[in-house]
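User: Hi! I'm working on a homework problem where we have to compare a predicted structure to a textbook description. Could you give me the structure for the chain below?
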Amino acid sequence: MTRAAILVRILTIVTSRADYEPASAPDPDRAATLQLIIALGRALQALEQVVGPHLVQHGLSLTEFAVLEVLHHKGPLRLGEIRDRILLTGASTTYVVKKLEERGLMRRRACGEDSRVVFGELTAKGRALIEEVFPAHADLLQQAMGGLSVSQKRDVIRLLRTLRAHARRASGESSTEED
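Assistant: Happy to help. Predicted structure tokens:
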């Protein structure tokens, strides 16, 4: 299960309980926080509904596409880096990588210096597929976000990066991983 799916489940729980706040002591910050989480989850679901059918036409799940896309744009990566970049658990990463390997779209390669480290990389077939699928995927996302100006998109990016930094600090994480 992807972290996005987990987020949607958490949102369902949070929103089902959000209505039980005592009316005598409204907390505007708490209400706005819950509304923001709901809005983020719903926006993510809406975007997945836009791109999902296109990916299915090419025999890909959203998670499989994400693995191919990150390898296409970043080159060979350690499996742990793939997991972190596309927000998967370790077991889910192994499962998705195995499926993509079986289809001949990617392969695992041991690191020459440390045999415990395993890299994932695209095969020629995987590269051809992602090069075919990605342009239309990007077009669909651009159409879905067409109601936002470039300036608004940049504002959302800035705000989400700020949110991410605060959430990382709150969880005790100090990583400065790039987006």
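For your comparison, note the following. The chain is about 70% helix and 5% strand. Residues 28 and 34 are 10 Å apart (CA to CA). Good luck with the assignment!
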